[in-house]
Write a structure and sequence with these properties.
Strands 1-8-2-3-7-4-6-5-9-10-11 form an 11-stranded mixed beta sheet, sandwiched between helices. It has a 5-stranded parallel beta sheet with strand order 14-13-15-12-16, sandwiched between helices. The chain has a 5-stranded parallel beta sheet with strand order 18-19-17-20-21, with helices on both faces. The protein is an alpha/beta fold. It starts with a strand and ends with a helix. It contains 20 helices and 21 strands. It is elongated. The chain is about 40% helix and about 15% strand. β9 and β10 form a beta hairpin. α1 packs across α6 and α13 packs across α16.
Length: about 550
């Protein structure tokens, strides 16, 4: 199939629309401009046309379509009832970028609504789209005119690039004014609910309707098994080939984070006037305080990442407290598959594992990546030197562990404390409270200058400190690997090494309590394992 690109302007005569209108009446699909994004239009009453829309996009058929009309009176044919709330919204915002969901009429095929008993309808403000609907004389079902999952098209060339050879015609009506899809609100619930934000803002909706709720899926993934009730609610949507990461926090923190993560193929999307001091190439996508400017440039910027071959892009997150930014934030979160780094959040990470599992190597990676690391062994040594009362308690429990000068003989203590599980528990009951108090104070001080603090401690679970951590990571390696490391590291005899190893809990004790397991042994690559752990922690997955 050859795809024809036809330039049409607002002032062109009706005859200019005839070819596209005939294609639509014949059950074909056409790429058309709207004020939001370009749409892939087909006869909403034709199941064959709707099937062609899904096929051309590669769109899952559980994702409902929006039906476009040219004036309010046409709504009555599509829905079973028109409430006063719909009339009020239409008076305020139609024609315009607002979609209303209402109970459908029998004329609307279920393939349009993905099997739902409601239909989404809007009246576009773009003069070309509006006139084409009038000339064709049929309502048009039209999702965005892109390959499913990709950034929505805001220019005819975007549609042509995605769908060339898949559809007969694309109408070039210039660049879209809004840049993001329409606001979607359902009126088929007791309280009107915002399902997809757009440039008709929550504040504007409330000014007409009063109470309006916001669906949880606006800023969060759909729950397991939850049915899509509006376009744009899928987990991953609007995504370029590049990996997108949304970064929350101040510009200084953003700059520091991007510079730390910079490698070939990394880009940064920032607000207008930003970019100085960032190692990565920079794209500006609008002013921080102008949501319409951000939405206008968003999809064009995401598509540009693919044009330049970007592998990864860190994006400055708009202010979450400002409801006007909901549309941009919603699109960014789905473009990033909800991969979000919150640089403002203070994060306490517990790191543990059996002796020889390589905790110290993992700790070093955290330190290299800007975290403050507290070494539980170092803390224990300090406490055992500074707290004379503690030494006295240990001597009473394990006699013969002090040198002649009163200092602790660590090897003697280890030999006795790790000789049996009972002795290990006795040791822990004595020293854990003192060590935890010391760590609490160091964590508090560290958070004054660091956003991430890692506590590396072998007995962090037994001490109860793990319960206070945001995440518990467990470094893991098999028995033979750990034994070899201990023999080499500590110059122990095999017998002493085995005594120490057997004094700890079994593997399941650690692995069953882990939020994330870092496999630190061949064939696993520790750097790759660490990156997965970072994504889990900073991305909230």
């Amino acid at each position: 199939m050859n795809t024809k690109l036809v330039k049409i302007s607002v002032n062109d005569s009706t005859e200019k629309y005839t070819e596209a209108a005939c294609l639509l009446k014949d059950g074909q699909v056409v790429g058309i401009p709207t004020e939001t994004v370009y749409g892939l239009a087909g006869n909403a009453y034709s199941e064959d046309a709707v099937k062609r829309i899904f096929e051309a996009k590669g769109r899952p058929q559980d994702n409902p379509l929006i039906v476009h009309i040219s004036e309010f009176s046409e709504l009555y044919e599509l829905v079973s009832e028109v409430p006063e709330t719909a009339k009020a919204l239409a008076d305020a915002f139609w024609p315009g970028p607002l979609t209303m969901i209402l109970p459908k009429s029998d004329k609307v095929p279920l393939c349009v609504t993905a099997g739902l008993n409601t239909v989404a309808v809007r009246c576009p403000a773009h003069p070309i789209a509006n006139k084409l609907i009038k000339v064709a004389g049929i309502p048009l079902a039209a999702p965005s005119a892109n390959l499913s999952g990709k950034p929505s098209p805001t220019k005819a060339e975007h549609v042509y690039k995605d769908l060339n050879g898949r559809i007969p015609m694309v109408i070039d009506g210039g660049e879209c004014e809004e840049g993001v899809e329409s606001t979607v609100i359902t009126l088929a619930t007791p309280v009107p609910k915002l399902l997809r934000p757009g440039n008709i803002t929550l504040k504007q909706l409330k000014s007409v309707l009063g109470e309006v709720s916001v669906d949880d899926a606006v800023l969060n993934p759909l729950k397991e098994g939850e049915k899509v009730s509006s376009p744009g609610m899928k987990y991953k949507h609007y995504s370029p080939d590049a990996s997108v990461v949304v970064v929350k926090g101040s510009y200084d923190k953003f700059k520091e984070y991007v510079n730390l993560k910079f490698c070939d193929g990394t880009y940064a999307m920032v607000f207008k006037g930003e970019g100085e001091g960032i190692s990565a190439p920079v794209l500006e996508y609008g002013s921080v305080d102008d949501y319409r400017q951000l939405s206008h440039a968003l999809f064009d910027s995401l598509r540009y990442l693919d044009e330049i071959g970007a592998k990864r892009c860190f994006v400055r997150c708009p202010d979450e407290e400002n409801d006007d930014n909901l549309a941009v934030l919603n699109r960014l979160l789905r473009a990033a598959s909800f991969d979000v780094v919150n640089l403002d959040k203070k994060t306490l990470i517990g790191l543990t594992g059996k002796t020889g599992s390589g905790k110290s190597t993992v700790s070093a990676l955290f330190k290299e990546n800007g975290a403050y690391v507290i070494d539980g062994d170092v803390v224990a040594r300090r406490v055992l030197v500074e707290d004379k009362t503690l030494l006295s308690k240990l001597e009473n429990a394990f006699s013969g562990i002090l040198n002649s000068d009163g200092a602790l003989n660590r090897k003697a203590l280890a030999a006795k404390a790790f000789s049996s599980p009972e002795n290990t528990d006795k040791l822990n009951s004595i020293i854990h409270p003192a060590i935890n108090d010391y760590i609490h104070n160091e964590v508090k001080q560290a958070f004054e200058n660091y956003d991430v603090v890692v506590v590396d401690a072998a007995a962090i679970i037994e001490s109860g400190f793990a319960d206070e951590c945001d995440f518990l990571l467990v470094a893991h390696a098999p028995f033979d690997v750990r034994k070899e490391r201990i023999l080499k590291r500590d110059s122990l005899s095999e017998e002493d090494a085995l005594i120490r190893m057997n004094g700890q809990k079994d593997d399941n004790f650690y692995l069953s309590k882990a939020d994330f397991i870092i496999n630190n042994f061949p064939p696993y690559d520790l750097n790759e394992e660490f990156k997965k752990a970072e994504k889990f922690i900073y991305g909230g997955h």
